[in-house]
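Quiz preparation item.
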């Protein structure tokens, strides 16, 4: 299963580690996990339960949090930029396609270039967002590209994004 939600990346990989650490090692209920994310992640700026729910899902996609029948628990796994890139590619919808587009050229690709080359939203999501689906897609592409920048797998230049 590939997850679709991609939050705005934080300023540092350490902020992702803080979010991971906010989830207990012993399974906790969803509401407890959400409250802990809101209370313990100042750098990311998780302001409410909706933000926390999105981050909890994304942490699952990154493989640093697991959902069990008893609730959510933190995985005992070191978070590094290269591991995050691997997990993005494996588990986040559109990440491998965007990365492949970046790898296919040595020239920086603008967001417009990426928009033409990357995978589209799933049909259900295009219908769900209606006329707004193009804006949603571009936001997701930009966020994915910025996650690759955060993890040092890509760089942002004046001309766009490129693999480092």
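Solution:
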């Amino acid at each position: 299963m590939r997850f679709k939600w991609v939050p705005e990346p934080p300023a540092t990989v350490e902020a992702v580690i803080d979010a991971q650490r906010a989830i207990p090692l012993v399974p906790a209920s969803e509401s407890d996990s959400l409250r802990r994310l809101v209370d313990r992640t100042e750098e990311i700026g998780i302001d409410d339960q909706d933000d926390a729910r999105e981050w909890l899902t994304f942490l699952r996609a990154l493989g640093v949090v697991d959902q069990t029948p008893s609730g959510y628990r933190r995985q005992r796994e070191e978070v590094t930029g290269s591991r995050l890139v691997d997990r993005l590619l494996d588990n986040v919808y559109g990440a491998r396609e965007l990365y492949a587009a970046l790898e296919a050229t040595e020239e920086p690709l603008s967001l417009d270039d990426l928009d033409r080359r990357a995978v589209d939203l799933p049909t259900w999501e295009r219908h769900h967002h209606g006329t707004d689906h193009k804006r949603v897609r571009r936001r997701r592409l930009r966020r994915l590209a910025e996650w690759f920048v955060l993890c040092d797998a890509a760089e942002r230049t004046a001309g766009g994004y490129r693999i480092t």
